[in-house]
Structure formats: C-alpha cells, structure tokens
C-alpha cells in the first residue's frame, strides 16, 4: 500500500512538472500580451509601476521552465537534494505569484485614477499628424475601441487642435466604419461614435490586469499541489522502508 502511494505521488509530481512547462509558456505569453497592450495605451497613464505585475509574471514564467527541469530530474533520479531544491524554488515562486496577485489588485484599483489624470493632457496634445505619438495613440484607440473624445465627441470642442483648426470637425478616427465619406463634421453627429474613450480604456486595462491576477492564482494553486507532492515523496523517502527498498533495487527507477 505504501509503495502504491509513493509511486502515485511520484507520477503526479512528474505530471505536474510537465504542467509547469506548459504554464511557463502561458505565463510568458500573458506577460508579453500585457506589455504589447499597454504599449497601445501608454500615453494614457504615466505610472510605470503599472508594468510591475507583467514583468514579474514573465520572470515567473521563465523560472518555471527551470523548475520543471529540476523537478523532473529530481523525481526520476530519486535525488533528495534535487527534491529539496525543487521544493524551495517552488515555494519562492509561489510567494512571488502571491505578490503578483496583490500588486495586480492594487494597480487595477489605480487604473481609473491614473487614466483620469492623464487623458485630458493627451487629448490637448493632439496635432492630427501621423508623426506625432499622442496623435497616433488617440487615433488608434478611437478606431480600436469605437469611441470618440473623453466622455463623448463634444469633448473635442475644448481641445487646442479643434480650436486652431476652426473646421467644426473631429478627427476622422471618430467616424463609424459603416459611414462612407465621413469627414468628422459635427454637423452630422450620427456619423460619429457616441461613446467616450475614457471608460473603455479603463475597462480594457482593468480586464487585462484581471487576466494577470487569475493566471497567477491558477498557477499558484498548481504549484502548491506540486509542493505538497514533493514533500510527500521526501517524507516517505525518509520514513518508509519500502521506499528505500524500491530505490536500492531499482524497481521504481
């Protein structure tokens, strides 16, 4: 019965190490996705610390590749030192993912305040040229999120670009794609997106941060299971004579 329990623990541990390798790829992908998405919205927030959860989750993903390799080798070779190292590193990564979850909640709560603080400044810097970074950022967001202005298209009337252009029009990025020959004129408000961009930018950034939090929680749970299995193998190796017999005779190798 003890032998079956040992073999079962080892089998689960090897399987979990394979999951760690898959998890490493997924975490790196999520972290990269967050960086790419934030790059599209980076003009709407100035707090670089918002990137911390993404940076940490990429580091954790990279470390999981190493953990999976150590865990598989230690489990197959019956290495007590390897299993101890595996357990210690796994515990460190688990603690790191708990930090990611905490930071994720903190920065998710700050997103709205940060965007509110900077979005008016970005719209005032709009110049309507492709060579200007804030202009490209606003046009991209308005096209991608199907929005216009901060709260609605009328916000453009208070911007420097609108006042200086004197054409009573908003950028063509405010135009609905179903409308042909749209010039952005305020004489035809039905051609423009009715919703403002601030709410949608905040929602997108909060959703991204939520994905990071859920991913960290999911893989932290898997890692805790791996840690428990490693501890079971270590404990039985030290206290179960049947296990020592299996190791010494090579039956379980």
From TrEMBL:
It is found in: Membrane. Interacts with claudin-11/CLDN11 and integrins. PROSITE patterns: TM4_1. Pfam families: Tetraspanin. This is Tetraspanin. GO terms for cellular component: plasma membrane. Keywords: Glycoprotein, Membrane, Transmembrane, Transmembrane helix. InterPro entries: Tetraspanin/Peripherin, Tetraspanin_animals, Tetraspanin_CS, Tetraspanin_EC2_sf. CDD domains: TM4SF8_like_LEL. The chain crosses the membrane at residues 12-36, 48-71, 83-107, 208-235. PANTHER family: TETRASPANIN, TETRASPANIN-3. Regulates the proliferation and migration of oligodendrocytes, a process essential for normal myelination and repair. Belongs to the tetraspanin (TM4SF) family. It is a multi-pass membrane protein. It comes from the Eukaryota.
